[in-house]
Amino acid sequence: MALYTSDDVVFYKAFPTTLKDSALEWFTIVPLYSIDYLDTLSHLFTTHFAESHPHQVTPLSLFNVRRQRDKTLRTFIDHFSKATLRTPNLTQEIILLCMALTLKPVPFANNVYLHLPASMHELKLRVADYIRMEEM
Prior knowledge:
Radius of gyration: 25 Å
Shape: elongated
CATH architecture of the largest domain: Orthogonal Bundle
Structural class: mainly alpha
Distance between the termini: 66 Å
Low-confidence stretches: none
Number of helices: 7
Helix content: 55-70%
Number of strands: 0
Order of helices and strands: HHHHHHH
CATH class of the largest domain: Mainly Alpha
């Protein structure tokens, strides 16, 4: 639909017909007579929906994945693996480097620091051994 007018009232009346799903639900709960100008409507709309916009995940966000003191190595590896799946354009080298840099000083971290794994498969084999030791 194209509107060829500069009248705010016409734009305001046509606006709900362009909405779907959660945007339409939001519009139906906006209090009556709370919008006096199209600028007010635009501000309310962008303010409400800008906060729910998903943040872009970058390889740097992997450095925020930390092992908590009371969590197991298995929990940390699961959390880190899920974070890598959400991150686009990762290479094995970046994943291995981030993993090595986010580990706290524990026997597994020392093992990774001394002998950096060549692949994710090698890392998973090593971590499995340490998880078994931790769970005994």
